[in-house]
């Protein structure tokens, strides 16, 4: 089992600070409690992680590896904690953000961490599909919306904050996983895929690309509302799916999913912010968050 995040933070602090006592103080616990927590983690993992000495402590080779592996995980956990706090702050009217699923899942957490660092602001975040984001901005329910893919933005001010592309992913044992040639639009039209629901930016980009290629997307075998559900379905042996390359990056890296080349389709898309008002975003947290989003790409 994976050790608790608090234990992994303690291990990383031992490496950073050079002693169990210093790491314990950073965590707000006694040296004895810190030592007990590390011993429990060693028992859980079956590994000796810390070399203990009177003049300080050092990590074993196994401990150093685990600490290195934990750094990115802990950073991601910090981002999620901030994102959860914004969801709990739904009562706040200071900055109301609606975002499409890909942006909300993979981009906004780090943007909101940065916003909290530069401005003390309460943010409410709602994750919906792109069509619902624009509707919320038009109704005045969102101060700022983030969408991806083609959507009717007439009457709203917008700004591009990044670029993305869709990638076709499949399970390693799928018949398309080991293709030597790229999948064509005609082949896609003949196979029922795992798809996002209508109204999502991902679905709109795919359907528009198929139309430009003179084809229509086959009726999906299953429609799902989140990237996580799409990836889990494909990983479990469901039909291939188109998802954001950012959403699939981790699974492609470890090989639980395979990227299948596609020819004849333009699958690029823009991440775009939308708001009511003039072309210059309103001063304050809206403009700050837009600046952070642009700087991130």
List keywords for this structure.
297 residues; alpha/beta; Arc Repressor Mutant, subunit A; D-Maltodextrin-Binding Protein, domain 2; 3 domains; seven-stranded mixed β-sheet; two-stranded antiparallel ribbon; 12 helices; 11 strands; 46% helix
Structural account:
This protein is α/β, with parallel strands linked by helices and 297 residues long. It has helices at 5-17, 20-27, 31-45, 61-88, 101-106, 108-118, 130-138, 185-189, 201-212, 227-235, 245-254, 285-295; strands at residues 50-53, 56-59, 95-99, 123-127, 144-148, 157-170, 194-196, 222-224, 241-244, 258-260, 268-275. It folds into 3 domains: 5-76, Arc Repressor Mutant, subunit A; 78-155 and 273-295, Periplasmic binding protein-like II (D-Maltodextrin-Binding Protein, domain 2), CATH 3.40.190.10; 163-269, D-Maltodextrin-Binding Protein, domain 2. It is built from 12 helices and 11 strands. The longest helix is centred in the N-terminal third of the chain and has 28 residues, at 61-88. The radius of gyration is 23 Å and the shape is flat. The model has no long low-confidence stretch (mean pLDDT 89).
- Secondary-structure element sequence? HHHEEHEHHEHEEHEHEHEHEEH
Beta-strand percentage range? 15-25%
Q: Give me the Rg, rounded.
A: 23 Å
Number of helices: 12
Query: How many structural domains?
Result: 3
Q: What is the name of the CATH class of the largest domain? A: Alpha Beta
Oligomer: single chain
Work out the number of β strands.
Answer: 11
Q: How much helical structure, as a percent, in the residues? A: 40-55%
CATH topology of the largest domain: D-Maltodextrin-Binding Protein, domain 2
Strand-pairing-aware structural class? alpha/beta
Uncertain ranges? none
Mean pLDDT: 89
Shape: flat
Architecture per CATH nomenclature, i.e. the level-2 architecture of the largest domain: 3-Layer(aba) Sandwich
Task: Give the biggest sheet.
Answer: 7 strands, mixed
Distance between the termini: 36 Å
């Amino acid at each position: 089992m994976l050790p608790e995040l608090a234990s992994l933070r303690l291990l990383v602090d031992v490496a950073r600070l050079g002693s169990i006592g210093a790491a314990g103080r950073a965590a707000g616990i006694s040296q004895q409690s810190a030592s007990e927590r590390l011993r429990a983690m060693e028992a859980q993992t079956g590994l000796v992680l810390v070399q203990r000495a009177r003049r300080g402590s050092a990590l074993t080779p196994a401990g150093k590896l685990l600490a290195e592996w934990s750094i990115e995980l802990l950073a991601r956990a910090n981002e999620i904690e901030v994102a959860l706090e914004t969801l709990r702050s739904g009562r706040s009217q200071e900055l109301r953000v609606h975002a499409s699923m890909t942006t909300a899942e993979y981009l906004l957490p780090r943007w909101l961490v940065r916003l909290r660092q530069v401005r003390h602001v309460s943010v409410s975040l709602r994750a919906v599909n792109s069509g619902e984001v624009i509707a919320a901005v038009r109704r005045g329910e969102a101060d700022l919306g983030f969408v991806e893919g083609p959507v009717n933005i007439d009457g709203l001010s917008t700004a591009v904050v990044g670029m993305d592309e869709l990638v076709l992913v499949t399970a390693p044992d799928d018949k398309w996983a080991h293709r030597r040639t790229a999948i064509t639009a005609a082949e896609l039209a003949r196979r029922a895929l795992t798809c996002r629901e209508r109204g999502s930016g991902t679905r709109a980009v795919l359907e528009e690309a198929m139309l430009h290629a003179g084809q229509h997307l086959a009726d999906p075998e299953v429609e799902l509302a989140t990237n996580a559900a799409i990836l889990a379905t494909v990983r479990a042996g469901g039909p291939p799916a188109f998802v954001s390359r950012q959403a699939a990056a981790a699974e492609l890296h470890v090989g639980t999913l395979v990227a299948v080349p596609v020819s004849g389709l333009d699958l690029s898309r823009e991440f775009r912010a939308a708001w009511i008002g003039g072309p210059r975003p309103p001063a304050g947290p809206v403009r700050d968050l837009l600046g952070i989003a642009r700087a991130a790409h």
